[in-house]
DNA sequence: TATTGTTATACTCTATAACTATA
DNA sequence: TATAGTTATAGAGTATAACAATA
């Protein structure tokens, strides 16, 4: 890397001035999310589970029998984009789609025994993942940090547009 | 909405148990990022500027003459995906790509007068946007929150894989 | 040989419209 | 008529390979 860049103004990769972005919460939260997902994937790639899949498995586990569209709602995705992901989980034998006997349009979702076993392994990785984040931000900040995120994620739900 | 769901177990959209996800920082940060981007877009859609474009304009403003690949590095995107975005900004007359006279391979980036004027308007919206976030999380938490985000975004840069 | 900007390409994620079968 | 699941499709965002011009 040639350091003789007395060019127009700046050409180096280092010494970039991020200006207002240094303190911009929106910018910081975007970069943080990318970093945390990268780290998540390092913990879960051996088990071949992505963040959205982990969320789906946990919600199905906690709410056995819920409909697909209820799961989509809970995860904040379109029900139309839920189909492929559930297909994949079902083909791996992790979930069951049972026909509801009350409303024959809907599918009730359940974890299989294999799905429950995998979730146990996922919890171990998840705990390591969370602990690593907590070490990064410092134990004394964890509660405030979590509280702030919860407020943004939930309290802004139906915003004052 | 029929409330007579005495089905298999759960079928309603409400009363979903999020289990471990309620306290999962990775999950909370993903949901928060979606919410903040939605709110950002409400503030900036009239000016037809997206988050990544705002970041690019601010960095070009603070580092006049920097190369495209330096900007891509700063924003954490591939230089190949920078091209289309800079094309759009240039076609709107917001930036200039000047041929560097030292290294004729590279393009030096500058804001045009029109780009600088727009950035002024963007700052106004940005300040409103940030203030709204700060009101959501509470003034006393802002500093800790920003500090946590910075630690995750930067300190995890070259992680201990 | 390596790097800058570029094109072409592909893969993921997400959003919309329309179909079927049930209600 | 409205809803649940599905399919097809289109748009973003992001990743890699390869090329021409230049270093």
Description:
- The structure is a homodimer of 161-residue chains.
- With 161 residues, the first copy, chain A, is mainly alpha-helical.
- Chain A has six helices and two strands.
- In chain A, strands 1-2 form a two-stranded antiparallel ribbon.
- The longest helix of chain A is centred in the last third of the chain and has 25 residues, at 113-137.
- The N and C termini of chain A lie far apart (49 Å).
- The model of chain A is unreliable at 1-12 (pLDDT under 50).
- Chain A binds a DNA duplex (23 and 23 nucleotides) through loops.
Order of helices and strands of chain A, N to C? Answer: HHHHEEHH
How are the strands of the largest sheet of chain A arranged?
A: 1-2
**Gap from first CA to last CA of chain A:** 49 Å
Helical run tally of chain A: 6
Give the CA-based shape of chain A. elongated
Largest interface: A-B, 82 and 82 residues
Oligomer: homodimer
Proportion of beta-strand residues of chain A: 5-15%
Radius of gyration of chain A: 21 Å
Helix coverage percent of residues of chain A?
55-70%
**Largest β sheet strand count, sense and barrel closure of chain A:** 2 strands, antiparallel
Low-confidence stretches of chain A: 1-12
Structural class estimated from helices and strands of chain A: mainly alpha
Mean pLDDT of chain A: 90
